[in-house]
Amino acid sequence: ELSIMGAGAIKHPQEVDEFHQKYETKERLGIGSTAIVKRCVRKSDGKVFAVKIIDKDRIKDRPEELRILHREMEIMHKVNHRNCIKYYEFLKCKRKYYIVMELLTGGELVERILSREGKFSEREASAIIRTIAQALAYLHTQGIVHRDLKPHNLIYESRDDRARLKLTDFGFARFKKKDEVMSTSCGTPDYVAPEVLVSHPQYTEAVDVWSLGVILYILLCGSPPFFSESTPQLYKQIRAGACEMPEEHWGNVTKYAKDLVRRMLSVDPKARITPKEILKHPWISGRRASTIAFDPKHALEIKKLVARKKILMVGRMAASVGILKNILVGRYCSPEPDDSKKNRDSAAIIKKS
């Protein structure tokens, strides 16, 4: 279990030498402005993990980042599901924080799809959506909302063909009471729900289903439902729910798949399908998904999407109100309203993918 407790406090702080007594660090896996991720080996049994090492000096003047870090650890202390990445230890040392977590080596979702070029079908897409819907159903039951669901955060545990896909990066996740609404604008532009993109957001866990709906749309045709090189125009499309299914790309997609996409991408969050309902949908549970491989242009569209993301990333960073970085880099999110401080900042704090 993680060595933490609620309210961001850390239980029984560990000395820095204890981490190195327990683990041996290996090669670097990633690096960012405030953290570095390495492979590490537990000396007692040789088990391999990933460790995120955060330099305390780099975030000592960033209390919001520290608060979010503690909240992420508090959430991960509660998460225990086969389709979610597992965190093992959070060690607070003299100069650094060490977050020991499951090592996932199977690559991101998009990489796996491209490796299946000429073989990827609706049936495989259905299995992917079922896996993540199971994770969301569990999280929402636990009162946890992820708020940053996207392909980049879906990683396979290994390179094996039967490897499990796992939901990662809980940096924007937060606890939510049954009838509570959230108001912080956060997420990733292409996957953020329309109710988040308003002046005074009031939203629920339904935002996770919208993001999964965008992912499903991409899985089925290779391109996103909403696209513009202009971020304001992109947000306008999303708020309008202008989601089309042109015959050129959707002609061979089953009516069951199309129905699920429409129900997940409902602009009205109250009308949006829930994760538990997704699992009961005939395209997921009734084997209505086609086993015929997608046309080669499907993979071509995904390759084009990946290329566009790399190009647009720089421009959108400059245009964004806030720059939110991925799990390896550290992040910022505007404060959540609470009983002592009702922060209604309407500025959109959107993470770059």
CATH homologous superfamily annotation of the largest domain: Transferase(Phosphotransferase) domain 1
Q: Report the order of strands and helices.
A: HEEEHHEEHHEEEEHHHHHHH
For this structure, the quaternary state is single chain
CATH topology of the largest domain: Transferase(Phosphotransferase), domain 1
- Unreliably modeled segments: 1-16, 314-349
Helical run tally: 12
Please list the strands of the largest sheet in the order they lie side by side: 1-2-3-5-4
Form type: globular
Overview of this structure, please?
The chain is built from twelve helices and nine strands. With 353 residues, the protein is of the alpha+beta class. Helix content is 36%, strand content 13%. It folds into two domains: 86 residues, Phosphorylase Kinase, domain 1 (2-Layer Sandwich), CATH 3.30.200.20; 211 residues, Orthogonal Bundle (Transferase(Phosphotransferase), domain 1). 40% of the residues are buried. The strands form three sheets. The chain has a five-stranded antiparallel sheet, sandwiched between helices. The chain is globular, with a radius of gyration of 20 Å. InterPro entries: Kinase-like_dom_sf (IPR011009), Prot_kinase_dom (IPR000719), Protein_kinase_ATP_BS (IPR017441), Ser/Thr_kinase_AS (IPR008271). This is Protein kinase domain-containing protein. One of its GO terms (molecular function) is ATP binding. Keywords: ATP-binding, Kinase, Nucleotide-binding, Serine/threonine-protein kinase, Transferase. Belongs to the protein kinase superfamily.
